[in-house]
């Protein structure tokens, strides 16, 4: 069988080269985390079981890189959320976070509306940053990721920009870089301050987690850890 070889025009090659060059720029967000778009999230809930307990409040902070490759906060999205039908509400949990789930002054929205607005905003930011997938960043990330994904499952929401299981856990990062695992202590150690009176509000905790994540990423860069210096073949050769 004869086949006709495929040829590329000079314009096509130029376009490919531009994309490759852009994707390798270490000062772009799309180059920093393997194409992932990090979004910091915190949830306030009516218990610890993502399948059965109500999600009551959520905030998300998107991030951006400035021209010098410094990671910064970008936009904050926040919702009070109505307990889903049949949701369990643990009294100890709402005593702890101070949320009255049925107070009409909360301005709570259904889970479906919350998911639509957050996913729409994240997808837009992801596209603008040239990233391939979004990833949840959180302090004790499995907890927040679990509640968000449980809401996705309940609502059968389809347009989900987030990776189904990959997360960036600032608890682990802080243990490595600051010797602390508690959010408040890690922020204080980093010189970011922390107001315990404002803690356990989704907006405050999310923005402090975003500050902490940006600090750790930027500090690693300041210390010479990024961009990576390629290892030559000679250095990796063993006899």
- Helices, by number, come to 9
**Residue runs with pLDDT of under 50 for 5 or more positions:** 1-22
SSE order, one letter for each helix or strand: HHEEEHHEHEHHHH
How much of the sequence lies in strands comes to 15-25%
Give the spatial strand order of the biggest sheet. Answer: 3-2-1-4-5
Distance N terminus to C terminus?
46 Å
Mean pLDDT: 90
Largest beta-sheet details = 5 strands, mixed
Overall morphology: globular
Secondary-structure-based class equals alpha/beta
Helix content: 40-55%
The whole-angstrom Rg is: 21 Å
What's the gist of this structure?
By secondary structure, this protein is α/β, with parallel strands linked by helices. 42% of the residues lie in helices and 19% in strands. A hairpin with a 5-residue loop joins strand 2 and strand 3 (71-80).
Characterization of the model:
The chain is α/β, with parallel strands linked by helices and 239 residues long. The protein has nine helices and five strands. The chain has helices spanning 10-23, 29-32, 91-97, 111-129, 141-155, 170-178, 183-189, 202-222, 233-236; strands at residues 36-45, 55-65, 71-80, 133-138, 162-169. A five-stranded mixed beta sheet has the order 3-2-1-4-5, with helices on both faces. β2 and β3 (71-80) form a beta hairpin. α6 packs across α8 (202-222).
């Amino acid at each position: 069988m004869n086949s006709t070889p495929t040829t590329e025009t000079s314009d096509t090659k130029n376009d490919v080269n531009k994309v490759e060059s852009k994707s390798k720029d270490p000062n772009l967000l799309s180059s920093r985390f393997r194409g992932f778009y990090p979004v910091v999230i915190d949830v306030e809930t009516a218990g610890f079981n993502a399948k059965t307990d109500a999600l009551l409040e959520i905030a998300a902070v998107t991030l951006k890189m400035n021209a010098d490759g410094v990671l910064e906060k970008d936009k904050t999205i926040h919702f009070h959320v109505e307990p889903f039908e049949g949701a369990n509400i643990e009294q100890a949990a709402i005593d702890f976070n101070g949320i009255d789930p049925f107070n009409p002054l909360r301005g709570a929205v259904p889970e479906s509306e919350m998911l639509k607005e957050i996913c729409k905003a994240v997808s837009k930011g992801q596209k603008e940053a040239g990233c391939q997938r979004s990833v949840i960043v959180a302090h004790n990330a499995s907890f927040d990721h679990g509640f968000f994904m449980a809401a996705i499952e309940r609502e059968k929401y389809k347009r989900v920009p987030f990776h189904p299981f990959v997360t960036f856990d600032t608890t682990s990062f802080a243990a490595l870089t600051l010797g602390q695992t508690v959010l408040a202590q890690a922020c204080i150690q980093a010189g970011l301050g922390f107001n315990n009176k404002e803690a356990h509000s989704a907006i405050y905790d999310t923005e402090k987690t975003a500050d902490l994540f940006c600090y750790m990423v930027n500090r690693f860069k300041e210390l010479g850890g990024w961009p990576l210096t390629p290892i030559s073949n000679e250095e990796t050769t063993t006899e």
